[in-house]
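User: I'm new to structure prediction. If I give you an amino acid sequence, what do you actually give back? Let's try with this one:
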Amino acid sequence: MPSLIINGDTVSIRLSSKHLELVKRDPDSERAFIKKKVPLFDVDRAVVIGRPNISIPVLQRLMFYGIPTYFVTSKGRWIGSLTPDNNMNAQRRITQYHLSSDKQLSLKIAKKIVYAKIRNSRRVLQRLAANRKQSDDPEHCKVVAELKNYSRLALLSDNLDSLRGYEGISAAKYFSKLATFFPDNIPFEERSTRPPKNAANALMSWTYTIVLGEVEAAVRCHGLDTCIGFLHTVSHGTPSLALDLLELLRAPLCDLLVMNILNHNILTDESFEFHADDGGTYLKNDSKKDFFFSYEMAMNRKFKLKQGEPHTDFRKIIDNSVISILHALEKKDFSFFIMP
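Assistant: Good question. You get back a string of structure tokens that encode the predicted 3D arrangement of the chain. For your 340 residues, that looks like this:
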């Protein structure tokens, strides 16, 4: 079991020898409860959604087994993580703190992140268009050509402000074209967050949050401070470095997963609900099981970056992205994931 998802139907979690005992509500009876035992050695990571009752011994045992645990609100708001500090290399964090003030290095890292992000966004549009036999559509050709130009301009940026400008323009063009690939029953008009205004944005935000948890855990496991980024500014309570690396994965992992889920009716408009308290639309608790099934398939799918190279998957891509940051801090050559 790669991931243990502790969702809103979980009443409590207890430790039972080398197992976690999950007490869940029986969907066929409001009063009945069912127990499920999960071997700890089968769990690679845990995602806690909402406010289930988790005992201190459970959290301690997760730490002992080196299992990172992410906490997310029922509405998909990132709270934080509990990650075992298996990497006690404090020198890495000292180096990171020292070099974070190196404007040239920060710009170099940020430029390669934005370049890869735009390239990946362009590749996603090309793949979606090819699947629908729209590769020769004039509007599609125009957008992908513009994104190619902005990726080049990103590498030529001489300051972070201009770089973020190219990133913003590219994102606007990308989302405008991406909207045409959403199903008619769940349209996408524009990006909205906190709260997401419709089902399309709700699923995108939810997916970004779940992937962010995996990225943050990888950063911590390599001994780096997740709050010290290069593209995203340092801000209280913001995992800036994790957000930096999430940019590489938004289009090729998150957005393609969203498109697959919606266009194959794995989730429909009935999978979401409107919350009057904040005017947002959110994924229903019962629908999160279907999401995580598709999510695990996407994370574990094997593919090659280049012909003749060994297969990889997105969890290895995340790990390699953090290693690229380490190489940058060590003044070695580095690069980031480009979608094949």
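You can read the tokens as a compact description of the fold. Here is one thing that stands out. The chain has two domains: 3-67, 90-329.
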